[in-house]
Records
---
Amino acid sequence: MTGPRYTPLAATLPSTVPFVGPEAQERARGRAFRARLGANESLFGPSPKAIAAMAAAASEAWMYGDPEVHDLRAAIAAHHGCTPAHVVVGEGIDGLLGLLVRLLIGPGDAVVTSLGAYPTFNFHVTGFGGTLHRVPYKNDLEDPEALVTKAAETGAKLIYFANPDNPMGSWHTASKVQAMIDAIPAGCLLLLDEAYADLSPPGTVPTIPADDPRVIRMRTFSKGYGLAGLRVGYAIAAPELVTAFDKVRNHFGMGRIAQAGALAALQDQAWLAEVKAQVIAARSQLADHRLCARWRLCPRGAAGVGRAGCLCPHAGRRAP
């Protein structure tokens, strides 16, 4: 008896995954985590309107979802001021990353990314035989100039760049991103991962014409919209590239409940604005707690009291 005959590439790959989920880690350690932080899930959750829409769609779960994702694509297009022909929807950004790499990257093709950037992208590139060229971060930021330079040196077909960045949580201004787009070498595509754009500071997201053939932008409902469990992401690109996704995508990959939930979430921008406000407030509180933790150990303090001039906002007061 013989087993399956793997491709030469698959035979050389390790059986590993980019992330080990918290559930697997909890099973291994025999107890639950006090908080889930690693995947940046939104504890604020989805819009109540999205929850109601998913509940209503549950009774129709016996039917496959619309393979063209017509209503959701139309709503996304209207939200971004483009046409449905500029939009492709898939199983989260992760799924779309795999499809894009499949379309563009063959064995030995050069791909440029940052050293330490989102590992799932690297997983897909390796899985299709591409050659990764990694550029170091600069001052805790991805280095757009170095990424473009490396792409020119290697003849890269694809650059991965996240803004805001995961995992660093840093970001570049819209003008900086636009300058990067204008410097992209001919024949190279910029994959702009905007998973956190809905929560980004003002002036972070550039206005990019949907027809620009140099860029594909990817967004998700997993972060700001609080729907990580649905796995709904989308990309905005020139129609020619969007049409190419139809060659390889899973046409029934988006279930009815997922389409209904994402559509209702997109239509409730007031909820997204409230979540963003709560994220900003929570981030401030976390920073405050972090400073307090440092303050207790700060050599500038004495007996747990912050000295005058200390950066801690509680300087001069006794530690709790």
---
Amino acid sequence: MNEWEWQLLEDKTVVDRVMISGVEIRPGDRVRLLPRKGGDILDIALEGQIATIESIEQDYEGKAHLSVVLEDDPGRDLGILRQPGHRFFFDLSEVEPLSPEEQRRKETVAKPSILVAGIGNIFLGDDGFGVEVAQQLSQVGLPPEVRVTDFGIRGLDLVYALQDGYETAILIDAYPHGKIPGTVSVIEPDLSEPAASLSEGGFLEPHAMNPVKVLRMATATQGSLKRVLLVGCEPATLGGDEGVMGLSAPVEAAVSEAVKVVANLVEKALHEVV
């Protein structure tokens, strides 16, 4: 869609339904994207992908356009504050309603209720522990109710994600607490206690996180979260002033243990939900 077309969409009204190929479509329904021929590289990339309709918008000429978000859009990390840049606009002729069988297959897959978040800075030695564990967990094949994401040092993205309808969050990070380097511990904050002041330590920094700030962030988050766990590993080194890439030997050895610990926590949480 070119700039002129975008300008036309600025003068729009929102409608609650449209008909496509004899099928009534509403916001929240899923469609297959079929961009018009001769489009750009983005249209080629979107060809055949499944998207969810966020809104149906009608321009000043009465022509309807669908605002959609890709089903596998990584922007879901931003939760309820997902930015408009993750939306795409399509003409009604450029989408295809899914068959009833395809819709039913999706409905049988539960929305993820558990968020597993790897946290850390890979340029600060053992602070990259959470990132490494998350990467290995993504290869394990956890149930569809579980979403594993490497948040790195994107603190604000994690804040938004914690507000996106999960019941349980498992945060993985280096956690200095006086143990032998490589020791893996599970810590559970009491979410019923009043949250610490957001001004203490300024934990809403967009590009930095540490375990204490993560715990405060979790307890301050409102929404459906019922439980937050921190799987922490005692670091041997955090890189010093100059920084260093790679985990120390004891922390690297603890990665496989942490993967098992998280898998067990996930299994327990899923049984509790059931």
---
Amino acid sequence: MRRFIFGVCVFFLCASSAFAYQDTHAPTLEDLNRAIAIDPDACDAYYDRGLLWERQGRLLKAIADFSQTIRINPKDADAYGARGGAYVLLDNFTQALSDYNKALEINPEDKGLYYNRGLVFVSLGDLKRSIADFSQAILMDPQYAPSYQNRGITWERLGDLDKAVADISKSIALDPTDAVAYYNRGICYDQEGRFIDAVNDFSKAIRLNPHYAQAYTNRGKVYAQLDEWPQARYDFTMAIEMDPQIAQSYNDRAIVYYRLKEYRKALEDLQKASALGYKVDAGLQGIIKKAVDK
């Protein structure tokens, strides 16, 4: 299965706040607790403490503090955006959408809010609205590569591979060091039957990130379509070494081993795939068992 990798919400938040501290160091949790104890309506202290909670993965506490910020200052777009981001991390996309909508009502000039809301629309399956939001972010900042890449992936889901490749290529032109962009364009090329281009893009992704298991997996699939069985075996083996839990890689390597007449290894891989929960094709398994028994 080909799997695209979407970007993540980037939040576009300032690490510091307007709250005045006696020292110049970044506020600690103790600083913020003390500030709130002194002034229970210290809006910026709640906001900064929410960011600290979020960085620690304590998302419910982060949401509570962002909510306190909003209670004190209902016009704080950053607080709505930050709370929306925390809801995204909890997979509560409906609430995240509500917060991003409110943030954009307050501050319609924030490209990051459009970008993040576009990702939420993708998660909710509203692809046309995600296209609109990524396009608005691009209009506001034509040099922001992730907006092009995620719009490209969304075009692919809508069945327009030409637009998908064009957008992801623009993303690569703006940031040629992004391994994920090459990976995503490689998937598009594979779907278009441009197998050599797909191999080249997956190879570029691997050069930029030598531990990119999914890039090895997808390059292996393309090599298999080209009947380049030794190269496919190498790629599936690399993917398995990096992530031994990728069940489909065992299944795919089993097919390669069968093509290379290494039947016992093929059967072992099918058994591993099955043990990891992959639904192995019974017909294929029967054919390989017969080959082993000969």
---
Amino acid sequence: MNGPDGGENHDEKDAHGLEATAVRPERQRLAKQPLDAASVADANYAMTISSALTHAEGERLAARVAELERERKHLLAVIEILKEVSSSLHFIDILQSIARKLGEAFGLDRCSIFLAERGGKTVRLVASYEDPTIRNYVVDLERYPELKRAMQEGETVFIHDAPNDPSLKHVKSELINRRVKSITVVPITWRGVAIGAIFLRTFRDGPTFSDEDVRFVQVVASLTAQALRNAHRYERLARRQEETGDALKRMELERVALLSFFRRLMEAFGQREGAWAEGLLPRASAEELDRLVGVAMAVIQEEAKGR
């Protein structure tokens, strides 16, 4: 098909060239043609929707990142609390450590831990984030209705706007002065009974206390209940061992006193003239007495090894 002079190839190129030349002016005409009002409105609407979707997607992404960051902080706090709990079996130290960790994690105005008292009318403040020196302070529940409700009902109490809450009107001025925003009370329960509570109070200009934060504190309250149970078992075991040690010591003193009495009695009896008179006994009797004494001492030594 290709001739020696390449003419056919030249025609093909010309054909393609003519086609390109024919199409190009049409494209240029369409590009230069002005859009009507409807087309412009449609274009603007499409751009607005695209921008809105991009903005909404960005907000969702930012919210998800913030949520993951909050979960990370919660997990780190739980790990630190577990480390603190496992390093001590004294419940006061455990509770003080938990109050400190929660206060630092949320930047709280107040974080306190209370334990129930017999009778149900008072509780005992045993740990405080804002004042670690408070360890054993009795609190009347009538002064803290939110704490009373959490202890009696065994349910979490969350007050979003504490200064304007009707149940706290008697301390409204104090809450305003302290710039208090919200109050959360999470009961510490064991076998369905509230044995204490974690009391948290946030600043008005501080971060919002979310539902995830409340659930996190509920997890901490559950860990606290288990830690208190373990500490109670340890202290009860230590007390029992101490009581057992005291009993053994008392028994040892009784044994020493009894033997000292017998020794003194025999010495006093032997000092009397002719008291022993062992020469009157037959030789066989004396040997039998020596044998019985040897057997008795061997039995006593074996019993001592068994104890």
